[in-house]
Amino acid sequence: MSVTSETPLEPPAPEPEPEDNTYMIRPNFQQKFRAVAVKECIHSVLVDELSEKTYNTEEATEWTKKISDTIKERLKDMQYDRYRFIVQVVIGEQRGEGVKMGCRCFWDSDTDNYAQDIFMNDSMFCVAAAFGVFYY
Predict the structure, then answer these.
(1) On the chain, which terminus has fewer CB atoms closer than 10 Å, C or N?
(2) pTM for this one?
């Protein structure tokens, strides 16, 4: 005679429901990259970071890194789902000379966009640009 312990059988775990297809080729209208709102964001960061400063060659590199990181974090807080951000910041000494900047991008003009803002005081200028590219 053999002795076996009987354990109550547990019902099988339910199978997970299939998720909806998340493949989107266009953002929702509410989630579209808004250049005006992004420009305001960039402007507030530039004013907060640079309004009390004078140009310093040694510190300019750190300022550009801090400003670009701050802009990128604020863009992420704006809930642009499925967007990837590229932020470029240039700081230079104000000497009364002209500066020209340009960029070229290969993107979808229906979904991708950019915004930029310029900060100037007596000793320096700063140009910040943020590019939002929709991730398919």
Answers:
(1) N
(2) 0.79
- C-alpha R_g of the chain: 25
Question: What amino acid occupies position 54?
Answer: T
Helix (H, G, I), strand (E, B) or coil at 86: strand
Strand pairing category for 124-134 and 113-120: antiparallel
- The edge-to-edge listing of strands for the beta sheet with 83-93 is 83-93, 124-134, 113-120
pLDDT along the chain (136 residues), means of 10: 58 68 74 94 97 95 97 95 94 89 88 95 96 92
* Residue 86 main-chain phi, psi, to 5 deg: -125, 125
| 49 contacts: CB under 8 Å, gap ≥ 6 | 63, 66, 67, 70
